[in-house]
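Morning - zinc ion inputs below, output right after.
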Amino acid sequence: MKKTFLSLLVLASLYSCNKTVKTDAVSEEFSDIHFENYKEHFVDELWKLNPGWASSQGYHKYDSVLVIPDDAYEQKQLQFSSVQLDSLKKYSLENLSDNNKTDYQMIKNLLESITFNIKEVKSDEWDPSGYNVSSSFAEMLNGNYDSLEVRLKNISLKMDNIPAYYEAAKKNIKNPTVEHTQLAIAQNLGGISVFETDLMAAVEKSKLSKEEKEAILGKAKTSVKAIQDYAAWLQKLDNKTPRSFRLGKELYAKKFDFDIQSGYNAEQIYQKAISQKKELHDKMFVLADKLWSKYLGNAPKPADKLTLIKQVIDKISLQHTTPDKFQSEIEKQIPELTAYVKAKDLIYIDPSKPLVVRKEPDYMAGVAGASISAPGPYDKNGNTYYNVGSLSGWSAADAESYLREYNNYILQILNIHEAIPGHYTQLVYSNQSPSIIKAILGNGAMIEGWAVYTERMMLESGYKNSDEMWLMYYKWNLRTICNTILDNSVHTRNMSKEEGINLLTKEAFQQDAEAEGKWKRVTLSQVQLCSYFTGYTEIYDFREQLKKQQGKSFNLKHFHEKFLSYGSAPVKYIKELMQNEKM
Ligand code: ZN
Ligand code: ZN
């Protein structure tokens, strides 16, 4: 099916191409050079149309512009989409390099999804939380890409449009969902401190003239009032028939295709998640049953299988580090993982690009655990950091609960996922085939899917092999499986909150607080929760398929290196390119 799709595309572009198609090396190269120019032009236009997005990616030419989300702007976006799609048609996929082939597909997907979002999803009508200016101003205040004075001047100009921005928002909003309305009120009011506190402090310490300072403070007052008005307007909104937060089957299926860009559709992934949940429960029962006496001695075994599993998991979770040692424990594991990956010949890791482990910077504080900070597309020489959160200042009870969750077993899986050979390793490879398009539009399902894939791959290779490790891994993996089931069930199958919480706490062994948080997230987002499991499943299935086809000649290390060499492209396109190469 995919093949047909691809050849149709190629065919369409052949007919629209005004040159005769040559297949010799010179014209291929020529086509690639043209396409490189096209991409540059495309990104210029993209940033012109989306100044806020540009700033967030480290492109600061349009920092002073706040776009007013009115009808005229919507028309501009539709226009952009159709003009750029026309331009794309001039290129024939078959004449492009692999890197450009995937860039082409990703640009095309973005352009088509612009129209889909405006004409079909219409979240600008039902999601009032989409209108919020504070975070873009906060980013400019905290950024150190330019002097404070230059940033403040841009902030000053950008503030001019805030009242008009919220007026346009009010015009767009029709029957918003209750959940997004509440979120919009809370987040907009929460963001006021950016203008009332942070901006004031920055202006105070700047070298701007007295007049300039006063002008900014005056605009800040006007901005705060516009935000407060918007929140008050939402609070009083006569919303008799609010839209449901559930997206509905038809839109969900389409949004899944656009956002995930998988070879599987939403329904196929849902069915796979359902059957994997069952499979994991069976495997977990075997392990927990075996481990019962080690952890619970002669205590009578509960009749219910899931209860039995949970009791064993709870006992194993007591093996954890202390708040003091949390960071050093994570740091210690990085070189261990690197050495293991090398010894087992799983994938080459470039030693010249070491991961910089650091204490989580203050502005990120609050999210404990670990995360990767990669340099943006316009900051190529920046370091890649592994941010490790600190538990200092946490209450004893909170720290204990957190450490049980990130116990000695799960903490290692977290390091595999975030660092080696997960996100960090993928990043090193993607930087070797640099693409501005993939830096901006990188496929989330591929990126998360790779990290989730490596967890299983590492355990399969024998990493810290034990029944406990596998049981805890399955518990961890159930999270991504159940995220997918939850997301699909809530948005297309009317799953109730009670059923949702039950799924997460009883079947995925989550704490109540985590389950409540997840429920909230699924009422506010759509599809994104599926990206982890979908990407993982697609990579894993592809690997198994190749193993079968290649038999003894299959080489795991080559598979990993080849797979990552295409950068953060959707798995279905990587798969296509790898398969073509084989033939
Ligand atoms: Zn404890
Ligand atoms: Zn991740």
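Note: The longest helix spans residues 266-296.

O.
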